[in-house]
Design goal:
Elements (H helix, E strand, L loop, with lengths): L2 H8 L3 E7 L5 E7 L6 E2 L4 E7 L6 H8 L2 E8 L4 E12 L3 H7 L8 E15 L10 H32 L1
Antiparallel strand pairs: 1-2, 1-5, 3-4, 4-7, 5-6, 6-7
Length: 167
């Protein structure tokens, strides 16, 4: 774990978690939550809460057979991706751990925690990443633009009124 990786993780609200069963059949699943839901526990371990979902339990079943996993994280705005390889441990009934992984304003029901032990990670080439912006990232820009439009409309109205007064 580096400071750069920890800072990157603190800004992510989504990840893709890949696992495979004992026969090597791959499975990938989206996981999300509030920014920073993927929590560094120490210099080698990350954790996140596993919330109730579609009740398929494919990832958990895969981890019973094969703890090897892969996390894929994207930052479309900054055209950056991070890939992390490691092992997953499924932890149930650990209130102290769970308390580190939940957010007061997030309504999901926690069923368990996943602890991911990092074996390797890499931040790789931004080539071919299409830049995208989330609604939260766009909101201040749109608000500023709306404010500028409002100001220009007032200025335009004032100029029209001056023209009307002169005629």
């Amino acid at each position: 774990m580096t400071d750069d990786l920890a800072e990157f993780l603190a800004t992510r609200d989504t990840l893709y978690l890949a696992s495979s069963n004992a026969e090597g059949q791959p499975y990938i699943q989206h996981r999300g939550g509030p920014k920073g839901f993927l929590v560094p526990l120490d210099d080698k371990r990350l954790a996140f809460a596993d919330f109730s979902g579609n009740r398929q339990y494919i990832s958990i079943g895969n981890f019973d057979d094969n703890p090897k996993a892969f996390i894929f994280l994207m930052d479309y705005r900054n055209k950056r991706r991070i890939k992390i390889w490691g092992d997953v441990e499924v932890v149930e009934d650990d209130p102290e751990l769970i308390s580190k992984l939940v957010f007061d304003d997030y309504q999901g029901k926690v069923e368990r925690a996943f602890i991911f032990t990092i074996e390797a990670w890499v931040s790789n080439c931004p080539q071919n990443i299409i830049q995208r912006w989330s609604e939260d990232e766009m909101e201040p820009l749109v608000d500023a633009m709306k404010g500028r439009i409002d100001k220009l409309e007032l200025e335009n109205d004032a100029l029209r009124a001056q023209l009307t007064d002169k005629s």
